[in-house]
Predict the 3D structure of the following.
Amino acid sequence: MPLTRKAYRAAILHSIADPAEVGIEASYEYFEDGLLVVENGRISALGHASELLPGLPAGVQVEHYPDALITPGFIDTHIHLPQTGMVGAYGEQLLDWLNTYTFPCESQFADPDHANEVADIFIKELLRNGTTTALVFGSVHPQSVNAFFAAAEKLDLRMIAGKVMMDRNAPDYLTDTAESGYQESKALIERWHGKGRLHYAVTPRFAPTSTPEQLTLAGQLLTEYPDLYMQTHISENLQEIQWVKELFPERKGYLDVYDHYQLLGERSVFAHGVHLCDDECARLAETGSAVAFCPTSNFFLGSGLFNLPMAEKHKLNVGLGTDVGGGTSFSLLQTLNEAYKVMQLQGARLSPFKSLYLATLGGARALRLEDKIGTLHPGTDADFLVLDYHATPLLSYRLKQANSIAETLFVLMTLGDDRTVLQTFAAGQQVHRR
């Protein structure tokens, strides 16, 4: 295969560590006039344009963005593909919202044509918003996952998804059985896991919708295929937590249900975690599990405020999730705008560099993919974004007043949305241009 090499010149910023562990100044690298060199889908060099340009081989095309910022692609650690059509549904908290809106919407995925249509819209929305990797819930129907992976494979995206396993406490038209959930998941794993940049996640929806038999088989899949992911929900809503206690009276608490069925581990991601206690955070961290922080959803469904400082205290891996359609936007910039407010309401601050970390390297660490995505280090996948300082008149005017990269970054996260993303690149190929 002939060598393809291209360079991109702009202001460039990426996280290199968690500010909570190393302090803000040591957590990022910023090049005011930087150069990113891409070869065959990977980053081959990153540095100051003045230092790298003289050594570039003759004929290498350099794309120059004088009024833009290049960052790593965003990573969404919790999102529901089948809920695309009901985003912004009015008036309910979690359990009523599932029955009123979510389950009827997910039932449509029995039709493969519907699954294909929504997968296409969903991936376009992710890329328009700068999300290059997502951990995705399908519906209970295998065709939801087949449609998503087929669309992602065409664009060589690094994506993780799984078929929902749900064998009780849901409408008959949306349940599988412990055995069918296991067999259908296994067939999807054999077909897709490790194909290109695709990975499979074992996906019990949440403890109330799976019998002990199904949770046992979910754990068995993780034993049979050790590099699989596992995704589910935890401690999102107080009513839900009470329901789990009633369904599993023999367990110490919500997390203990998953722990008992051996669902905690290095590639396990638990969405929400709004009402986790100290002991549960410690246990998640001890097992290498991660939590997806979903602020727009937690506000929209009235679930509560995620305690990021407590998670940091335990060195628990945390990524960001849009959760669409519990959340109201595919944009991780908008999600960070809400995350800032969650912290403000708890008397804490969210630095823009911690925000960048959560949307990029933090998400990659939560998914154990930091050697491949989440930074712009040479050798990693060339998944990156060009953020336009002039995306809207207000953003353009406001950024003229900014006098540091910290302020610029914060304004991008408070005023920015899908319009801010000028271009999205995956494996070195442009997959979206505004």
Q: What stands out?
A: The two ends are 30 Å apart (CA to CA).
